[in-house]
Amino acid sequence: MPGGTFAMGSDDFYPEERPVRTVEVAGFWMDERPVTVSEYRRFVRATGYVTVAERRLDADLHPGADPRLTTPGSLVFHPTPGPVDLSDCGSWWSYVPGANWRRPEGPGSAPHGRERHPVTHVAYEDAEAYAHWSGKQLPTESEWEYAARGGLDGAVYAWGDDFSPRGRLMANVWQGDFPWRHAGLGPFERTSPSGLFPANGYGLLDMTGNVWEWTSDVYRAPEPDRAAKAACVPLLVPLDRQSPLPWQRTAADAEAGTADGNRVARVVKGGSYLCSATYCLRYRPAARQPSDSATATGHVGFRCVVHPR
Q1: How far is the C-alpha of 101 from the C-alpha of 53, rounded, in Å?
Q2: Where is the Sulfatase-modifying factor enzyme-like domain (predicted)?
């Protein structure tokens, strides 16, 4: 990606994307596609790395926590049987013990047949560990958005202003009424293999849709009280009225250095297969969300960059 300036953000959609501002980015290299299941498997085999979703929480640090929530696991999407209150994302997200990058939907599932799909159920620390092992870095938010635009400065989507040019679907996003009626992509009800849709102007695949992608930036909203209500990425998902996910901090959180000891939210970009025009229209380069850096989910992945020395 050659360096340059571009108009970052959007004034036309969600509050956290405002205002549009001119940003300069130095040149860098970026992975053509999100890191895949097979690529992440090679990393784990080479290093013995254990992801956040595979680690048991210390019950002593969470007295009174539901025992289910100290069991290793991750957040998994489940379609609802019918229309629900869209203000409560706990209606379609649930903490599934045993869910992780190896078992995307929990025990009984497997990544077989999904080797070319983006790896999911990776917390920020897991993505950062892979990047370090591969001699790369995670992109900043501005680098990610600059690359996603593919040279189409100011366009709504990574491919232009028309959602489906000549009737063609350009990204893996929710088709139908979220979160219960989904037309799907044939055999792909969740993630899809990279390369199923056209590359953007810089030759990058799946920059929007499929999975959200981690960036290295700590999330800061321009104005906290302007945060959008429709959120694709759960920061803290209640399983029931009394039992939220337990809070734990990772090494990546500690390095970010929040003075109040709270967990750190990082910026994720690009939207996912759960983004829908009826709920969360965030399969756009300008879209951004905060994601709890210590939480893994079934719709967040990552890709890496290399900066010139």
Answers
A1: 8
A2: 2-305
Name the CA dihedral angle for 11, 13, 18, 23, rounded to a multiple of 10 degrees: -70
What is the total residue count of the chain? 309
77 forms beta bridges with: 93
What value, to the nearest 5°, has the Cα angle with vertex 279 and ends 168 and 190? Answer: 60
Instruction: Take residue 117 and report the two structure tokens written for it.
Output: 């799909």
All domains of the chain in start order, with CATH: 1-309 (3.90.1580.10)
Q: Tell me how far apart the alpha carbons of residues 276 and 274 are, in angstroms, rounded to a whole number.
A: 6
> How many CA atoms does the CB half-sphere of 116 hold within 13 Å?
9
Give 43-60 pLDDT, tens digit per residue: 999 999 999 999 987 666
Token pair, residue 62, equals 């969470």
| Closest to 185 measured CA to CA, from 199, 194, 195, 175 | 175
For the entire predicted model, the pTM comes to 0.89
Range list of H helices, the chain:
37-47, 124-133, 141-149, 251-256
